[in-house]
Design goal:
The protein is of the alpha/beta class. It has one domain: Nucleoside phosphorylase domain (Rossmann fold), CATH 3.40.50. The chain is 26% helix and 24% strand. It contains 6 helices and 13 strands. A hairpin with a 2-residue loop joins strand 3 and strand 4. Helix 2 (137-148) crosses helix 5 (221-245). The protein is globular, with a radius of gyration of 17 Å. The two termini are 16 Å apart.
């Protein structure tokens, strides 16, 4: 896959619920891709780093998780020259040791989505991308370090992604717990695998917005929104410190995955 970088940003932040206005931008752009136009991307400067911010659900939070054009969004960041992505996700806690307001940096994931475009490689030649380590270990390490300086963070967690937009049933949550899942969300896939296919480092900072279905009564979007408002200052601070702490040269193997996949 040929890179058509416009050289605008090397780091990107993908914001979920409550992060639509995370950064003050110097410019806003929509990027055309073979998969359609991306959401509006803000370009800003943070400590001499040019950073792209993409609100996953749109500026007005009007795009549900199953309707997000993940391929267009990820390819747009790729075209802008992005090499590292820090994502954020609001999640429900499956692990009973996790509580609303807790921060989580997942190390693994399970995909239970049903109807999403999961790959850039729909045509020949057949490409198999290694996904043994779904999240970039270098970004994860920095996220965990910065989060621990602010509060409680769970640095080992399995994220399960569901289709949405409905919340899960208690039976589904019980199944996910039996499979070893700790948190549940609706937007972590296919972002993570699309980033890996493009050779982009990707990790996510999650915050627990609610206990999952069947644990603590009826779930509402208002509950998620209220928790988001409370935890946002912490999330913003961690993201900003992580961006500043990223080394100039990457030491991970994320960018080699696509090359290795083509050799099979």
């Amino acid at each position: 896959m040929r890179k058509e970088s416009e050289g605008r940003a090397s780091v990107a932040v993908i914001g979920g619920t409550g992060l639509e206005d995370l950064f003050k931008s110097s410019s806003n752009i929509n990027v055309g891709t073979p998969y359609g136009f991306s959401h509006e991307i803000s370009i800003c400067e943070i400590q001499k780093r040019t950073v792209a911010f993409l609100p996953r659900h749109g500026r007005k939070h009007d795009i549900p998780p199953h309707k997000i054009n993940y391929r267009a969004n990820m390819y747009a960041l790729y075209r802008l020259g992005v090499e590292r992505i820090i994502a954020t996700n609001a999640v429900g806690a499956i692990n009973l040791n996790f509580k609303p307001g807790d921060l989580v940096v997942p190390h693994d994931l399970i995909d239970f989505t049903k109807h999403r475009h999961l790959t850039f490689y729909d045509d020949a030649p057949v490409i198999h991308i290694d996904f043994t380590e779904p999240y970039c270990p270098e970004i994860r390490k920095i996220l965990v370090k910065e989060a621990k300086e602010i509060g409680i963070v769970h640095d080992q967690a399995v994220y399960v992604c569901t289709e949405g937009p409905r919340f899960e049933t208690p039976a589904e949550i019980n199944m996910f717990r039996a499979l070893g899942c700790d948190v549940v969300g609706m937007t972590g896939m296919p972002e993570a695998v699309l980033a890996r296919e493009l050779g982009i480092c990707y990790a996510t900072l999650c915050f627990v917005s609610n206990m999952a279905a069947g644990i603590a009564g009826r779930l509402t979007y208002e509950e998620v929104s209220e928790t988001s408002k409370i935890v946002m200052p912490k999330v913003r601070e961690i993201i900003l410190k992580t961006i500043i702490s990223l080394p100039e040269t990457k030491s991970c193997q994320c960018s080699s995955a696509a090359k290795l996949g083509r050799q099979q």
